[in-house]
Design a protein that fits this description.
Blueprint (H helix, E strand, L loop, with lengths): L2 H9 L30 E7 L2 E7 H10 L7 E3 L7 E2 L25 H7 L1 H17 L2 H9 L4 H21 L14 H12 L4 H15 L1
Antiparallel strand pairs: 1-2, 1-3, 3-4
Helix pairs in contact: 3-6, 3-8, 4-5, 4-6, 4-8, 7-8
């Protein structure tokens, strides 16, 4: 080795090793655990036919909305909500089909059928007398047949038939009738639930009760 090389070697000293005495080694970096997103957590509940369903994931809720199983007026709940809310009043509303118009409001619903239904107990009684007169001919025999409730099914069929028809009309107007669809055969309950859902007063419900009482005491 020449003198020049030796001088060059000594001009570039090695960096001293760091003093690690008393210093604890750095821990290996930990990858923080990521909790599942809200879309994969079963945190949602929804109403169906008067029953509480859930919990289900947000992804499932979106699927229900897309399939039409849940609509804007369906009541839903998750932790943090003060009460059950309609889907259209939650963040899930962005998944509703904005091409579908909202349901017709109560004042725009045709109430002809429901008012016929309100008087159905009396109308049914008149139909019973008409049918009895056609069958028995004699006025007294017809009266006895009606008084003995021989043709009671006429009034029942009229009331239930009108209830189901009215419920079908409400559904066509865009309303979710799942809460009272199965109550059409219990006419006063159906009328009450209908009035509540459409924010109507209870006029046709009260008229039906009055007509029913008149038929009972007649």
């Amino acid at each position: 080795m020449t003198t020049g090389e030796s001088q060059i070697g000594t001009a570039l000293p090695q960096a001293p090793a760091p003093d690690t005495a008393g210093v604890s080694p750095s821990p290996v970096a930990q990858v923080p655990s990521i909790s599942p997103s809200a879309a994969s957590e079963a945190i949602w509940f929804h109403e169906e036919d008067g029953s509480r369903k859930g919990p289900v994931t947000e992804a499932a809720m979106i699927g229900f909305i897309k399939s039409g199983k849940l609509v804007g007026s369906t009541a839903v709940w998750k932790k943090g909500f003060p009460d059950w809310l309609k889907i259209e009043n939650t963040d899930l509303k962005i998944h509703l089909d904005d091409k579908v118009p909202p349901p017709l409001s109560g004042e725009h619903i045709n109430n002809t059928v429901v008012w016929v239904l309100a008087f159905a107990p009396l109308i049914g009684l008149m139909l019973e007398y008409f049918l009895a007169g056609m069958i028995h001919g004699n006025g007294r025999l017809a009266e006895l047949a009606v008084e003995n409730s021989k043709y009671w099914f006429v009034t029942v069929a009229l009331n239930v038939g009108l209830s189901y028809y009215d419920e079908h009309q409400l559904k066509k107007a865009g309303h979710d009738t799942s809460k009272f669809r199965g109550l059409a055969f219990i006419v006063p309950v159906y009328l009450y639930q209908r009035a509540m859902a459409l924010k109507h007063n209870l006029a046709y419900f009260i008229v039906w009760i009055a007509c029913f009482v008149v038929v009972l005491v007649a």
